[in-house]
């Protein structure tokens, strides 16, 4: 039971139920704590050899990546590995009451025939993911040395630094918006991939055209 202080006086007591309402400041923190338990559970399955990840070097095995509510499981292609992933997720769902949506999940194959992938996807009830794909705002599996791979980044810069915005802002406003856009849109991708020179020239042209002060005609 709990009550709420209103102007220093407690209200009538009410009963707590499971879960938090959307927007509660405690919700993200509690969600991270619960997902940490999933990370520990899956790490133990890898340590005891129940699930086989991808061996990178001699001392490192990559099996899963967690970012908020986006989970990526990486491992050898086998029926046993796939069934064990579902088993771990099912146990996690029973323990914490969080339902795993398999329909929203995707399966990505590397070096596996399309027929085998279709058979597994049909059995699991998930969808097929093809490379390249976007994960956390960055393209994965594509050739980022190609100029056309940066078309979306350039398009976002042009839309956020359009000419009509430059005409309605002062020089200080343009500079503030320019720093904000250039510091958030392309920097994340540029920290992971080497940008072609022509793409850098296009970004510089967009920046120059936006910041340029157009003379007023009499």
UniProtKB/TrEMBL annotation:
Pfam families, per database record: RVT_1 (PF00078)
The yes or no answer to whether the keyword Nucleotidyltransferase is present is yes
Q: Which parts of the sequence belong to the Reverse transcriptase domain?
A: 1-140
Keywords annotated in UniProt: Nucleotidyltransferase, RNA-directed DNA polymerase, Transferase
- Give GO terms: molecular function aspect only: RNA-directed DNA polymerase activity
Q: Does the keyword Nucleotidyltransferase apply?
A: yes
In Swiss-Prot or TrEMBL terms, this protein is called: RNA-directed DNA polymerase, eukaryota
Q: Which organism is it from?
A: Tanacetum coccineum
């Amino acid at each position: 039971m709990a009550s709420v202080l209103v102007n220093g006086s407690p209200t009538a007591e009410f009963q707590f139920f499971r879960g938090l309402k959307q927007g509660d400041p405690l919700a993200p923190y509690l969600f991270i704590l619960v997902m940490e338990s999933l990370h520990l559970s899956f790490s133990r399955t890898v340590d005891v050899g129940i699930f086989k990840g991808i061996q990178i070097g001699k001392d490192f095995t990559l099996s899963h990546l967690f970012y908020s509510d986006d989970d990526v499981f990486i491992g050898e292609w086998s029926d046993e590995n796939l069934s064990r992933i579902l088993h771990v997720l099912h146990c996690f769902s029973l323990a914490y009451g969080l339902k795993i949506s398999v329909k929203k999940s995707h399966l990505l194959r590397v070096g596996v025939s399309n027929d085998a992938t279709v058979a597994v996807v049909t059995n699991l009830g998930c969808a097929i993911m093809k490379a390249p794909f976007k994960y956390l705002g960055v393209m994965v599996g594509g050739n980022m040395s190609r100029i056309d791979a940066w078309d979306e980044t350039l398009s976002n810069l042009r839309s956020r630094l359009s000419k009509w915005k430059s005409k309605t802002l002062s020089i200080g406003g343009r500079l503030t918006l320019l720093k904000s856009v250039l510091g958030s849109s392309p920097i994340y991708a540029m920290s992971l991939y080497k940008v072609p020179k022509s793409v850098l020239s296009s970004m510089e042209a967009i920046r120059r055209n936006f910041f340029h002060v157009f003379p007023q005609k009499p």
